[in-house]
Amino acid sequence: MSERTWSIVVDSFPKMLDYGVRVTLPLAAASFALALVVAVIVALIQYAKVPVLQELCRFYIWVVRGTPVLVQLYLVFYGLPSLGLVFDAWLAAWLVLGLNEAAYMAETMRGAIESVSVGQLEAGYCVGLNFPQIMWHVMLPQAFRTAFPALGNSLISMVKETSMAATITVMELFRQAQVINGRVYESLALYTEAAVIYLMFCTVLSWLQRLGERLLARRGGAAK
Q1: Are the C-beta atoms of 12 and 193 separated by less than 8 Å?
Q2: Residues whose CB is less than 8 angstroms from the CB of residue 178 and which lie 6 or more positions away in sequence, other chains included
């Protein structure tokens, strides 16, 4: 590595890290939160077999999982303005990334809810609870325990998928790398540096995921 390249790498690292912390991670967290809420609602509708809504949820999952997230970003940010629907770049990225991941997480949550014994649903009715109460107090806590590893993987994937937001001008980590490279033309060094920062973020999240799994395993063992 030449002295010029090394100097560029050293100078650009704090700038990219700053955008990663201030934009990439918050965008990933907000998108994951949206995805989790939508996924739980969709999973519950499918589990309860609500007429009409169940078919709409299946259609939503089919469409979102069958089209690339990049195309979805372009449709929302560049396509919808022609219909009078204009979204800020960050908001568009948040909606698309969140709703895209929700389609996958909904199937994870549905499977996790169905893994809980139906006898607990019946027992809840026997003690006078209604369906929402049973879901909130009995079924969902157990389902989240089962789904925790998969949900952790979704969050890690979300951090990496935020790089797609650069295509609709969101100034996040990868977009900052592109801007710097446009001035200094050191593609290999700068994009490698961006990859290392993403790796740092995902490594920390992976460690937290394993820690959470161990804590849940201990609590589950204690409960037994």
Answers
A1: yes
A2: 166
Which stretch of DSSP H or E encloses residue 115? helix 89-115
pLDDT digits (tens, 9 = 90+) for 56-113: 999 999 999 999 999 999 999 999 999 999 999 999 999 999 999 999 999 999 999 9
Residue 224 pLDDT > 50:
no
Whole-number Å distance between alpha carbons of 221 and 214: 10
For residue 220, name the pLDDT band (cuts at 50, 70, 90).
Answer: low
pTM (2 d.p.): 0.91
> CB–CB of 217/179 below 8 Å?
no
Q: Which residue in 172, 106, 165, 114 sits closest to 143, CA to CA?
A: 114
On the 0-12 / 13-18 / 19+ scale of CB atoms within 10 A, 11 is exposed
Q: Give residues with Cβ within 8 angstroms of 177, minimum separation 6.
A: 12, 16, 190, 191, 193, 194
DSSP-derived letter for residue 181 is H
What is the Cα–Cα distance from 102 to 115, expressed in whole angstroms?
19
The gap between the terminal CA atoms of the chain, to the nearest Å, is: 57
**CATH code for the domain defined by 3-223:** 1.10.3720.10
CA distance 130 to 139: 12
Among the listed residues 22, 32, 26, the one whose alpha carbon sits nearest the alpha carbon of residue 155: 32
CA distances from 211 to 68, 190, 218 (A): 32, 32, 11
